């Protein structure tokens, strides 16, 4: 049962990550449009966050148990708080950035860094920790890595398709961002519980 819960959370985090990229594009669109330049900054920001989160998560995975747990709680809190900021204050922040920075490239850089980089980095940091979870339960490390990132990528695909074809056409972006926040809270709470559980001897 714990493995079913584990894979459900991994898929959900995949959905959250890539679905959030589409929501980010809709959030930016009224201010900067949806040109190739906007997408270049957006995709680059998410890739940088995936990279940073993976390295951070690898470092957290090697900490001693109590320090690792504190780092996991901190990462989850950072993800939730930063998602809450984007959901609650994304529009006013973008209004300010649009006026403060006349150069579009600079404005996009600041927007993506403030609103999207931190939550995606925090969420991505749990990928290596999920690999560690399986490896500690007698799954060979290479197989554990393939399973986690394969399952997570399926969640990415589901997140793109669900967000693009079912959610964005029928709901306001602001409502969806709060939905993302609620799902993140539940998923991260479940994952923290799973990661805290000791491996069977």
The CATH architecture can be given as Up-down Bundle
Number of strands: 0
**What level of helicity do the residues show?**
over 70%
Please state the average pLDDT score: 94
The CATH topology assignment is Growth Hormone, Chain: A
Most strands sheet: none
Compute the number of structural domains. Answer: 1
CATH class: Mainly Alpha
Specify the overall morphology.
Answer: globular
Measured between the Cα atoms of the first and last residue, the distance is 17 Å
Report the total helices. 7
Low-confidence stretches: none
What is the beta-strand fraction?
Answer: under 5%
Q: What topology does this entry show?
A:
Blueprint: H1 2-32, H2 36-61, H3 65-100, H4 104-124, H5 126-135, H6 141-167, H7 173-196
Description:
The chain has one domain: Growth Hormone, Chain: A, CATH 1.20.1250. Helices cover 87% and strands 0% of the residues. Helix 1 runs antiparallel to helix 7, helix 2 runs parallel beside helix 5 and helix 5 packs across helix 6. The longest helix is centred in the middle third of the chain and has 36 residues. The two termini are 17 Å apart. The model has no long low-confidence stretch (mean pLDDT 94).
């Amino acid at each position: 049962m714990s493995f079913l819960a584990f894979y459900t959370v991994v898929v959900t985090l995949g959905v959250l990550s890539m679905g959030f990229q589409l929501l980010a594009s809709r959030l930016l669109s009224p201010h900067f449009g949806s040109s190739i330049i906007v997408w270049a900054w957006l995709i680059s920001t998410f890739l940088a966050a995936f990279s940073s989160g993976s390295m951070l998560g690898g470092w957290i995975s090697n900490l001693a148990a109590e320090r690792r747990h504190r780092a996991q709680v901190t990462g989850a809190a950072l993800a939730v708080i930063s998602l809450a900021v984007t959901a609650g204050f994304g529009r006013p922040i973008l209004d300010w950035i649009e006026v403060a920075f006349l150069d579009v490239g600079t404005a996009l850089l600041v927007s993506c860094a403030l609103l999207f980089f931190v939550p995606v980095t925090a969420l991505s940091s749990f990928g290596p920790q999920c690999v560690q979870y399986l490896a500690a339960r007698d799954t060979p490390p290479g197989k554990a890595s393939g399973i986690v990132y394969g399952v997570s990528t399926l969640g990415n695909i589901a997140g793109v398709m669900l967000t693009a074809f079912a959610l964005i056409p029928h709901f306001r972006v602001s409502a969806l961002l709060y939905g993302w926040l609620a799902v993140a809270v539940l998923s991260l709470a479940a994952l923290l519980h799973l990661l805290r559980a000791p491996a069977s001897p």
